Amino acid sequence: MLRTVINTFWNEYVWLPPNTTWEDIAPGPDKVVVYTDHRHLLVPIPLALVLIALRYVLEKYWFAPFGKSLGIKNTRPKKAPTNPKLEAAYQASPKIKHKQICALAKQLDMSERQVERWWRLRRSQDKPSTLVKFSENMWRCTFYLYNFSYGLFILWDKEWLWDIDHCYIGYPHQGLTNDVWWYYMISSGFYWSLTMSQFWDVRRKDFWQMFVHHLATIALLSFSWVGNLYRIGTLVLLLHDTADIFLEAAKAAKYANYQRFCDAVFATFTVLWIVTRLGVYPFYIIWSTSVRAPMLLPMFPAYYIFNSLLCLLLALHVVWTWLILQVAYKAIHAGQMEGDIRSSSSELSDVSQLSNHSTPNRLNHKKET
């Protein structure tokens, strides 16, 4: 039964161009070119664990000391008084409504204000310190910088970097080189590590969007690897790393209170994001996969799956671009960028934190204080 399901799923009609079999693109010493090996898709998982360990070491012994030298403090908020019943209610649901506050106040013989104050203190306990957030951003910035540099270096002499039609010419009999193999494995390992660490990293409001993004990216890398479509995959990877370097650098600069540098980097990021994610990506990459590819090779079902995932990434780009433009607009009026483009879920708002304008939430908080 299981074998039937596997054979049906990996049907050659679905995954390969017409008149092509798995045996035709199976790696082996008798083949003219080196083909991708589907078994290598397991390699990124242990690589992800290595990257998580490397991140831990760098954050603890490099980024955290560097952040402290810049004056970033590792201060923790005041702890809420011990109260088992309130703690149990908080663990059940960190978000609380007014009705729950009233019920807890009556049950514990406390005033509503006391319950609200305890709840605010308890929520602030879960917020990571500025130094922790700085270290996380420095790790991501470092990796994106490395990955982009390595990708650009190995692709510089590849013909498909300069003429995207070569992603399809000769497909699927396109030889794989060791440098591209490592580029794919390390990139896949990084996204696997993000998917794993996302559950204990700084919790952000776009948690599920990022989770979908990571899974879509892993699926894209896996499908393109199995189908030997790695050439277009390398271009997508290179394009996506470009703006991410500046995003993480801007956030790290903000946490270090280098406001002018943060503003300059954020402006560069905004321009690069729009150019790469809403310009080059849809009008060069997706246009190529949707228009040029059918002209150069016969289509097959898996290619439409691959292209649909590319379009899913584009939809996420549009959502994030709207948030970024809101941030940029408020930053221009406020005179500086404040906060984080993707703030933690315990903060008031993803967008309002990036400008100096007071929001109704902030005003209410001031009144409560």
From TrEMBL:
<keyword id="KW-0812">Transmembrane</keyword>
<dbReference type="InterPro" id="IPR009057">
    <property type="entry name" value="Homeodomain-like_sf"/>
</dbReference>
<keyword id="KW-0238">DNA-binding</keyword>
<comment type="pathway">
    <text>Sphingolipid metabolism.</text>
</comment>
<dbReference type="Pfam" id="PF00046">
    <property type="entry name" value="Homeodomain"/>
</dbReference>
<keyword id="KW-0256">Endoplasmic reticulum</keyword>
<keyword id="KW-0808">Transferase</keyword>
<dbReference type="InterPro" id="IPR016439">
    <property type="entry name" value="Lag1/Lac1-like"/>
</dbReference>
<dbReference type="InterPro" id="IPR001356">
    <property type="entry name" value="HD"/>
</dbReference>
<feature type="DNA-binding region" description="Homeobox">
    <location>
        <begin position="88"/>
        <end position="130"/>
    </location>
</feature>
<keyword id="KW-0443">Lipid metabolism</keyword>
<dbReference type="GO" id="GO:0003677">
    <property type="term" value="F:DNA binding"/>
</dbReference>
<dbReference type="GO" id="GO:0046513">
    <property type="term" value="P:ceramide biosynthetic process"/>
</dbReference>
<comment type="pathway">
    <text>Lipid metabolism; sphingolipid metabolism.</text>
</comment>
<dbReference type="InterPro" id="IPR006634">
    <property type="entry name" value="TLC-dom"/>
</dbReference>
<dbReference type="GO" id="GO:0005789">
    <property type="term" value="C:endoplasmic reticulum membrane"/>
</dbReference>
<keyword id="KW-0472">Membrane</keyword>
<keyword id="KW-1133">Transmembrane helix</keyword>
<dbReference type="Pfam" id="PF03798">
    <property type="entry name" value="TRAM_LAG1_CLN8"/>
</dbReference>
<keyword id="KW-0371">Homeobox</keyword>
<dbReference type="GO" id="GO:0050291">
    <property type="term" value="F:sphingosine N-acyltransferase activity"/>
</dbReference>
<protein>
    <submittedName>
        <fullName>(diamondback moth) hypothetical protein</fullName>
    </submittedName>
</protein>
<keyword id="KW-0539">Nucleus</keyword>
<dbReference type="GO" id="GO:0005634">
    <property type="term" value="C:nucleus"/>
</dbReference>
